[in-house]
Amino acid sequence: MRVRNKPWADDLIAENPEAIVLDAAAHRGHWQDRFKQQQPLQVEIGTGKGQFLIGMAKAHPEINFVGIELQKSVLAAALKTSLPEALDNLQWVLADGDGVETFFEPGEVDQLYLNFSDPWPKTRHEKRRLTYKTFLASYQAVLRDNGKIQFKTDNRHLFEYSLMSMTAFGLQLTEVSLDLHADIAASDGKLENIETEYEQKFSAKGQPIYRLVVEMPDKAK
């Protein structure tokens, strides 16, 4: 999908170095220094315009959040939206999520979020899917023992592929939802869900939203 250039993006990024990181690898092992206080660290890969992570940061001030996005104009839009909120538990990273193990030390991350990733439907593009085994290995490298991955999509084929890929990798399923919004309605508020921009768009059309939550096994076992 072509992303429209935003002429103000470079200036906004340059003016807010306290909120956005351009050299993620330089902070490997020291991410807590970017935040007001040391707290559990959760990371979203492919953060888009930031609605999900901004919502999470507001709902959970007891957690530090990092959002990684490759498209500069898209991340600048997220930054622009977040600045008025003055969230001291949220940082943005301009980088490719492929290679996340170079950004964080082993065990530095408590939870990862993969929201509405590109499904790469053609078989020859399987290795580009964010739930392919090489990506799962990079997540395993940075997650603490028993750290979690939350995955959401509207794409049934990607959901089924991810379910098989994650279980084959040895991840432990803690939640499988075939219709997240229906499950939330039936849970009497027990299931939390911060919606993304894409999620609102797809659910408004009546499409079911799928969610998986998996847990990394204890590496010592």
From TrEMBL:
A GO cellular component annotation here is:
tRNA methyltransferase complex
Task: Please state the pathway this protein functions in, per its UniProt record.
Answer: tRNA modification; N(7)-methylguanine-tRNA biosynthesis
Is tRNA processing given among the entry's keywords? yes
Q: Which Pfam families match?
A: Methyltransf_4 (PF02390)
One Gene Ontology term of the molecular function aspect: tRNA (guanine(46)-N7)-methyltransferase activity
Q: What is its EC number?
A: 2.1.1.33
Q: Which residues bind S-adenosyl-L-methionine?
A: 44, 69, 96, 118
Chain segments carrying region Interaction with RNA: 124-129
List keywords of the entry alphabetically.
Methyltransferase, S-adenosyl-L-methionine, Transferase, tRNA processing
Q: Which family does it belong to?
A: Belongs to the class I-like SAM-binding methyltransferase superfamily. TrmB family.
Write down what this protein is called. tRNA (guanine-N(7)-)-methyltransferase
Q: Which organism is it from?
A: Furfurilactobacillus rossiae DSM 15814
Its gene is trmB
